[in-house]
TrEMBL record:
Belongs to the LOG family. Keywords: Cytokinin biosynthesis, Hydrolase. InterPro entries: LOG (IPR005269), LOG_fam (IPR031100), LOG_family_nucleotidases (IPR052341). GO terms for cellular component: cytosol. NCBIfam families: Rossman fold protein, TIGR00730 family. This is Cytokinin riboside 5'-monophosphate phosphoribohydrolase. Residues 1-29 are annotated as: Disordered. Transmembrane segments: none annotated. Residues 19-29 have a biased composition (Polar residues).
Length: 283
């Protein structure tokens, strides 16, 4: 809410303060007497799930609008990928080898953020899942470049507090995976996917499906690490089987380094159409 907005009617803050000051009686102490918007137990009822969905969609939208985050560059990637200095602690040799992508994510986010700051820092803001691994690397690179970045955390049993590089006022926490994924893509001007596990695959294929079906505008879609992704997904087999179209293989591009990704994003080509600038947000 705009701070200097004036109302003729009492607002909810005033009514909440008044409600907190009433004498304690059997009536005022009853849960039924609590103001609905201030009654946590009421808001957590199963029947209120649609309201919670709306709140979870609206809160980050309003706060990002107020912070001037007009567009984003999305980084998806594994939480278990360590920074190179800690690769000796990796659970597998593959994770140790993949630590190189931590540094590429960091460098890429740094370069994108420097580019963003040239035009005021409101466009192409880095957004990650806010956790460790590749996500940490993205937020870290943005901070080291002197810019802001968004972290979209989610409540999980074993994870994940926001990493320390997320801009505090742009650190969000979600209960619903679906709403979180909407916020990843609502402002996206590019999607960059690093090696990862089930969560990364979920994010990758949902975003690709939205683009494939025309529900989302085509944007630069970059997969870091051809060797990893071609071992995980047999892309050509999908096209050969006819379960995707041949042209769907052109929806994304493999890259290996931060510099290659940055240049690919700046000069994204799809179906013969050259785009000198990244397309804007689609309403």
């Amino acid at each position: 809410m705009t701070k200097d907005r004036r109302h003729l009617m009492r607002d909810s803050h005033e009514d909440q303060r008044t409600a907190d000051q009433v004498p304690q009686t059997p009536q005022t102490m009853s849960p039924s007497y609590r103001l609905a918007f201030a009654d946590e137990q009421f808001l957590l009822r199963d029947d209120l799930r649609p309201v919670r969905w709306q709140l979870e969609l609206l809160k980050p939208e309003l706060l990002m609008n107020e912070a001037g985050v007009n567009s984003t560059v999305v980084l998806f990637g594994g939480a278990r990928i360590p920074e190179p200095a800690r690769k000796v602690t990796a659970r597998t040799q593959t994770l140790a080898d993949l630590s190189a992508f931590y540094e590429e994510a960091r460098r890429f986010a740094h370069r994108v953020t420097e580019w963003s700051l040239e035009t005021g820092g409101t466009e192409n803001v880095i957004v990650t899942g806010g956790g460790p691994g590749v996500m940490e690397a993205g937020n870290r690179g943005a901070q080291e470049a002197g810019g802001r970045s968004v972290g979209l955390n989610i409540v999980l049993p074993h994870e994940q507090a926001p990493n320390p590089y997320v801009t505090p006022e742009l650190a969000f926490n979600f209960h619903y995976f679906a709403i979180r994924k909407m916020h990843f893509l609502m402002r996206a001007k590019a999607v960059c996917v690093f090696p990862g596990g089930f969560g990364t695959l979920d994010e990758l294929f949902e975003a690709l499906t939205l683009i494939q079906t025309g529900r989302m505008k085509r944007v630069p879609f970059l997969l870091f690490g051809r060797d990893f992704w071609e071992r995980i997904v047999n892309w050509e087999a999908l096209a050969e089987a006819g379960t995707i179209a041949d042209e769907d293989l052109q929806l994304f591009k493999f890259v290996e380094t931060a510099d290659e990704a940055f240049e690919a994003m700046r000069s994204w080509t799809h179906a013969g159409e050259r785009r000198e600038h990244i397309p804007g947000r689609e309403e």
